[in-house]
Amino acid sequence: MARITASVFTSHVPAIGAAMDLGKTHEPYWQPLFAGYEPSKQWLKDNKPDVVFLVYNDHATAFSLELIPTFAIGCAAEFNPADEGWGPRPVPKVIGHPELAAHITQSVIQDDFDLTIVNKMDVDHGLTVPLSLMCGQPQEWPFKVIPFAVNVVQYPVPSGRRCFQIGQAIRKAVESFDEDLNVQIWGTGGMSHQLQGARAGLINREWDNAWLDKMIADPKACADTPHIDYVREAGSEGIELVMWLIARGAMADVNGGPAPTVKHRFYHVPASNTAVGHLILENNA
Ligand code: DHB
Ligand code: FE
């Protein structure tokens, strides 16, 4: 049986990828940020998954305004890093797991969540920056990845509650896959940031840290947060945090099991225009 062993939560700022690709990680601006991910890289080496179910958002890269799926699952055998205007990032291509992706698609759609099936898709910084932060700069990514793209770019976006419920359905789907696989689920994006308009540059440390507390101990309170609260408190792009709720909904404690163990917690401002938040939760069932 496949099992979800842990969840990882992290921001995905494109400038973080550029800092790595251009060899700037030791510069004073970046050093404290990357130091916060050193324990995570070691943890991932010690807890190497077979597959990561990676919840992220596409930033009008693979999907333009012509076609906007709310929840899209990557079922392809591989996914190339996208060209976001400066050429593709010099990172390995992403190897998928079509069999597990197809199984999850079947199970989750039969559980009444209408996913869009994607058989060809390039993946942008939303997916590759979390991989870089957690894995460094390997020749090949050390596990397979199922990309799961959520629309948080064009309104209307899905509610946090819906995201949480879909996470619960994903857990059920993974646990009904016959092969013994160690699966992690990653929720990415956030924390507070606003990239445009009168409040551009908004950061809300207090709200972000209260959110991290609740993500650990009271995730249902996060799931019940209305979307307007994210926009008001965490800025227009703070809405990316609903994606964390998919990963949190797939953890044992919110599906009748024991509480997770917090393996790492980190918060850092600034990284470009964004507050970087990061959690690793390990399942105890
Ligand atoms: C930034 C953050 C994002 O989440 C994003 O998608 C693009 C840019 C930033 O802080 O620069
Ligand atoms: Fe983003």
TrEMBL record:
<keyword id="KW-0560">Oxidoreductase</keyword>
<dbReference type="InterPro" id="IPR034937">
    <property type="entry name" value="PCA_45_Dioxygenase_B"/>
</dbReference>
<dbReference type="InterPro" id="IPR004183">
    <property type="entry name" value="Xdiol_dOase_suB"/>
</dbReference>
<dbReference type="GO" id="GO:0018579">
    <property type="term" value="F:protocatechuate 4,5-dioxygenase activity"/>
</dbReference>
<dbReference type="Pfam" id="PF02900">
    <property type="entry name" value="LigB"/>
</dbReference>
<keyword id="KW-0223">Dioxygenase</keyword>
<dbReference type="GO" id="GO:0008198">
    <property type="term" value="F:ferrous iron binding"/>
</dbReference>
<protein>
    <submittedName>
        <fullName>Protocatechuate 3,4-dioxygenase</fullName>
    </submittedName>
</protein>
<feature type="domain" description="Extradiol ring-cleavage dioxygenase class III enzyme subunit B">
    <location>
        <begin position="8"/>
        <end position="276"/>
    </location>
</feature>
